[in-house]
């Protein structure tokens, strides 16, 4: 049953500084409210246990996309629609744009934000595997200043993140590469839109012929957190793609992921699909593909 | 919706009319539209942003009004299904839905019409894939979608856009 609406506060501040002051003033009392596409679902289900929210939707400072030769830095309030509309993101970070296009439908994409997706911390989220494979960094701000951390390591356990109650996620930074690389993103779910993934796979590779020079792989919905598969990467790196590497790589991936049976899928299906997606990815990146 | 100490004042435009609302900020825009403004054309299907029956336009963008807290729409420009026609003049999309039989029970129809109107504003000559993509957030349990897609194609033709033939492969 829906939460009791009169008990909730949604306070709108005029600036980022005012928001940070509010978060610092009574630590833990206020939580940020961005596009609302996750929080309003919880409200409707009677599961929005926190009562006091600060509306950050109109903070222009968090909507910027900044491009330098080394990085593209995206404000945390950038919506999925805005991600897809940016030419640099489309050209150099296609997996992030693909993830954005497969999240919900247009109405969700117009309101859902990258920052909200990250901090909501669902292991089934669509953008985090792409962000992990792209080696993203994130900026956390508070009245004490700002700090940049690697996104890898931000998720510590199911829906647990490494940030303090007075901090706000403000920006996401992606390192640009001089080499284009080969990108592979696949979300496996019940429909082409409005579906939560059973398995989500994002990978980037740099190859010389059939030799893997560099590879980064991340999966969603196969662990309590969006998972960067570093052991599988270490195994594949520097090796030639052939049937043996595929088989041993799949075995390594099977050991690294930790899927469960849940409302959407089973452990066995997720393991099988993860292996299949790795095979599809390796087939995709061999020379001539 | 009674006023109380947690209510706030919201100024917005709804279907070209200025409105002032005294509301609880976490009230759903869907409920404020239906119950306070008596604009019951916007429907609740799922209440969780999956079905699109509650679609409205905020500043020209399509959103699920069941997921928008009214506290976030201060100074916004909102269009509901009631704002699609111009007085007695139906929008080309509405006319097309009538001509093509794009509605059965009608519960998805306000959302479908708004999504179609928004699609044609953004993409005046949509391909079949554009139409499917543009309406991907709107679910229908009655029609099987074919007559809805045909209605969008007919609306393009009615507006003088380049024709698009629906085949079985749509």
Short description:
The complex is a heterodimer of chains A (289) and B (170). With 289 residues, chain A is an alpha+beta fold.
Describe the structure.
The complex is a heterodimer of chains A (289) and B (170). Chain A has eleven helices and 14 strands. Chain A has 289 residues and is α+β, with helices and mostly antiparallel strands. Chain A folds into three domains: 5-55; 60-175, Uridine Diphospho-n-acetylenolpyruvylglucosamine Reductase, domain 3; 182-285, CO dehydrogenase flavoprotein, C-terminal domain (Enolase-like, domain 1). A five-stranded antiparallel β-sheet of chain A has the order 4-5-10-6-7. A four-stranded antiparallel β-sheet of chain A has the order 11-12-13-14. In chain A, helix 9 (230-236) runs antiparallel to helix 10 (243-256) and helix 10 runs antiparallel to helix 11 (267-285). Chain A is globular and about 60 Å long. Chain B is of the alpha+beta class. Chain B folds into two domains: 8-83, Ubiquitin-like (UB roll) (Roll); 92-158, DNA polymerase, domain 1 (Orthogonal Bundle), CATH 1.10.150. Chain B has five helices and five strands. Chain B has a five-stranded mixed β-sheet, with helices on both faces. In chain B, strand 3 and strand 4 form a beta hairpin. The interface between A and B is medium-sized, with 31 and 32 residues.
Summarize the SSE layout with pairings.
The complex is a heterodimer of chains A (289) and B (170).
Chain A: E1 9-12, H1 16-25, E2 31-33, H2 39-44, E3 52-55, E4 65-67, E5 71-75, H3 80-85, H4 87-92, H5 94-101, H6 106-109, H7 114-120, H8 127-133, E6 137-142, E7 145-150, E8 155-157, E9 160-161, E10 168-175, E11 182-188, E12 199-208, E13 211-220, E14 227-228, H9 230-236, H10 243-256, H11 267-285
Parallel strand pairs in A: 1-3, 2-3
Antiparallel strand pairs in A: 4-5, 5-10, 6-7, 6-10, 8-9, 11-12, 12-13, 13-14
Helix pairs in contact in A: 9-10, 10-11
Chain B: E1 8-14, E2 17-23, H1 29-36, E3 55-58, E4 61-64, E5 77-79, H2 92-100, H3 109-122, H4 128-134, H5 146-158
Parallel strand pairs in B: 1-5
Antiparallel strand pairs in B: 1-2, 3-4, 3-5
Helix pairs in contact in B: 2-5
């Amino acid at each position: 049953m829906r939460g009791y609406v009169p008990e909730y506060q949604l306070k709108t501040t005029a600036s980022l500084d005012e928001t940070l002051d509010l978060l610092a003033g009574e630590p833990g009392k206020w939580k940020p409210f961005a596009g609302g596409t996750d929080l309003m679902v919880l409200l409707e289900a009677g599961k929005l246990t926190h009562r006091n929210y600060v509306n950050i939707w109109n903070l222009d400072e968090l909507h910027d996309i900044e491009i330098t030769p080394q990085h593209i830095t995206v404000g945390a309030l950038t919506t999925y629609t805005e991600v897809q509309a940016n030419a640099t993101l489309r050209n150099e970070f296609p997996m992030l744009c693909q993830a954005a296009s497969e999240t919900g439908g247009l109405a969700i994409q117009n309101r859902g934000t990258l920052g909200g997706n990250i901090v909501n911390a669902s292991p089934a989220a669509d953008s985090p595997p792409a962000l992990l494979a792209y080696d993203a960094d994130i900026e956390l701000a508070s009245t004490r200043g700002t700090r940049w951390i690697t996104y890898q390591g931000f998720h510590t356990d199911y829906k647990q993140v490494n940030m303090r109650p007075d901090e706000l996620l403000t920006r996401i930074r992606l390192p640009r590469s001089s080499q284009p690389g080969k990108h592979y993103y696949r979300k496996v779910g019940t429909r082409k839109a409005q579906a939560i993934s059973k398995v989500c796979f994002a990978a980037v590779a740099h190859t010389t012929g059939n030799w893997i020079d560099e590879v980064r792989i991340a999966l969603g919905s196969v662990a309590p957190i969006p998972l960067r598969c570093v052991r599988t990467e270490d195994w594949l790196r520097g090796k030639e793609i052939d049937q043996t590497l595929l088989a041993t790589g799949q075995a390594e991936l099977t050991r690294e992921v930790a899927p469960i049976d849940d409302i959407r899928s089973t452990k066995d299906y997720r393991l099988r699909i993860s292996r299949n997606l790795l095979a599809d990815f390796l087939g995709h990146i061999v020379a001539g593909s | 919706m009674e006023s109380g100490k947690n209510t706030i004042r919201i100024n917005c435009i709804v279907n070209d009319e200025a409105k002032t609302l005294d509301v609880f900020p976490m009230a759903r825009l869907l409920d404020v539209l239906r119950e306070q403004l008596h604009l019951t054309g916007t429907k609740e299907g799922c209440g969780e942003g999956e079905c699109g029956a509650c679609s409205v336009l905020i500043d020209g963008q399509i959103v699920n009004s069941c997921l928008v807290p009214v506290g976030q729409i201060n100074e916004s420009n909102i269009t509901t299904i009631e704002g699609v026609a111009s007085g007695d003049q139906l929008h080309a999309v509405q006319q097309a839905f009538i001509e093509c039989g794009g509605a059965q029970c009608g519960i998805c129809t306000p959302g479908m019409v708004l999504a179609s109107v928004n699609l044609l504003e953004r993409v005046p000559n949509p391909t079949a894939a554009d139409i499917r993509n543009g309406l991907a957030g709107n679910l229908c349990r009655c029609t099987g979608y074919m007559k809805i897609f045909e209605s969008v194609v007919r609306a393009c033709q009615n507006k003088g856009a380049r024709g698009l033939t629906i085949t079985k492969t749509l």
